[in-house]
């Protein structure tokens, strides 16, 4: 018997009570990225988690939790809310919810909560990201977006990231 995912996708700010759920999703996200970054877990078997910590504790950051029905479907971390440009620092949809429109619906809900300039990085070797993120930019900014290759900050051993930049309009 397979589970049928409900039609109701909720994307909401994650609370301190949600942190354990996001912490359990975090290794799945980092594991997915490791395919494109060539990064192994630490000797203790865990991945770096400073972004997770910052999302819940640092000024200018906001964590979001996605649920589909009562089940967690992913998360998003936004940083730069106290600056001129917002950055979608991390975005993750669990594999069981992918290819069903969850990611596009979820990212739109997060970005529209914070109108203004945005930047999003992804890895060129990740074919799903190469298709997904320009689609997001086109939907929200039409042709008013740019793409730029930049080195990974403070990580010269990693391949460069592709960054897209665009402005999310304020609601009419």
Layout of strands and helices, then pairs:
Elements: E1 9-13, H1 19-37, H2 50-57, E2 62-68, E3 71-79, E4 86-93, H3 102-112, E5 116-122, H4 127-141, E6 145-150, E7 161-168
Parallel strand pairs: 4-5
Antiparallel strand pairs: 1-2, 2-3, 3-4, 5-7, 6-7
Which tags fit this structure?
globular; 4 helices; alpha+beta
Mean pLDDT: 85
Cα-to-Cα separation, first versus last residue: 45 Å
**Amount of helix:** 25-40%
Task: Please provide the ordered H/E string of secondary-structure elements.
Answer: EHHEEEHEHEE
Content-based structural category: alpha+beta
Q: What is the number of helical segments per DSSP (H or I, 4+ residues)? A: 4
**Envelope shape:** globular
Q: Which ranges are low-confidence, i.e. pLDDT below 50, for 5 or more consecutive residues?
A: none
Major beta sheet, strand line-up = 1-2-3-4-5-7-6
What features would you describe in this structure?
With 172 residues, the chain is of the alpha+beta class. The chain has four helices and seven strands, in the order βααβββαβαββ. The protein has helices spanning 19-37, 50-57, 102-112, 127-141; strands at residues 9-13, 62-68, 71-79, 86-93, 116-122, 145-150, 161-168. Strand 2 and strand 3 form a beta hairpin. The model has no long low-confidence stretch (mean pLDDT 85).
Summary of the model, kept short:
The protein has 172 residues and is an alpha+beta fold. It is built from four helices and seven strands. The chain is globular.
């Amino acid at each position: 018997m397979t589970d049928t995912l409900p039609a109701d996708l909720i994307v909401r700010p994650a609370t301190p009570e949600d942190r354990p759920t996001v912490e359990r999703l975090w290794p799945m996200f980092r594991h997915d990225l490791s395919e494109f970054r060539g990064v192994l877990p630490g000797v203790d078997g865990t991945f770096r988690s400073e972004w997770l910590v910052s999302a819940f504790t640092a000024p200018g950051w906001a964590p979001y939790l996605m649920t589909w029905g009562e089940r967690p479907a992913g998360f998003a971390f936004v940083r730069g809310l106290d600056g001129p440009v917002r950055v979608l620092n991390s975005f993750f949809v669990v594999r069981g919810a992918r290819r069903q429109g969850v990611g596009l619906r979820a990212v739109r809900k997060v970005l529209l909560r914070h109108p203004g300039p945005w930047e999003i990085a992804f890895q060129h070797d990740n074919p799903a990201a190469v298709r997904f993120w320009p689609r997001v930019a086109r939907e929200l900014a039409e042709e008013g977006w740019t793409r730029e290759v930049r080195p990974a900050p403070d990580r010269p051993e990693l391949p460069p990231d592709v960054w897209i930049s665009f402005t999310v309009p304020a609601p009419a």
